[in-house]
Amino acid sequence: MFKDSHAFSGFSTNDIAKAKEFYGKTLGLEVTEDAGMGMLTLHLAGGGNVLIYPKDNHEPATFTVLNFPVSDINGAVDALTKAGVEFERYEGTPHDERGIVRGPAEYGPPIAWFKDPAGNVLSVLEG
């Protein structure tokens, strides 16, 4: 039924202007804005899109809403840190000094979590 549908994901924010600045300038993504609807579209490598919509009673996602695979997690984390991004450290999870989790195996590839200005969880992972 949906084999040929160009599906997309979306999540909310409480401040479209801050989201546009963060995703466009801090993360360097192509971002377009539908001023009439007050929504953003993130244009991801490979042709995927993510919709970010305003919500007055926004509650941040408590799970990862967007993952960014990179070939060099150390370089990506260092660049994000330099841009002012702070990495999450979850109790009971083995983080290194940068905030990167590098195992054990059940955690998968090296990964580091951070939040957007609305508190939604994002990650950068090596792979």
Residue share in helix: 10-25%
Helix-strand topology string: EHEEEEHEE
Structural class call reads: alpha/beta
Strand content: 25-35%
The major sheet is characterized as: 4 strands, mixed
Provide a short characterization of the protein structure.
It is built from two helices and seven strands. The protein has 127 residues and is of the alpha/beta class.
Describe this structure as you would to a colleague:
The strands form 2 sheets. The protein has a 4-stranded mixed β-sheet, covered by helices on one side. The longest helix has 11 residues. The protein has 2 helices and 7 strands, in the order βαββββαββ. The protein is globular. The chain has 127 residues and is an alpha/beta fold.
List keywords for this structure.
three-stranded mixed beta sheet; globular
Write the layout of secondary structure elements.
Blueprint: E1 9-13, H1 16-26, E2 30-34, E3 39-43, E4 49-54, E5 64-70, H2 73-82, E6 111-115, E7 121-126
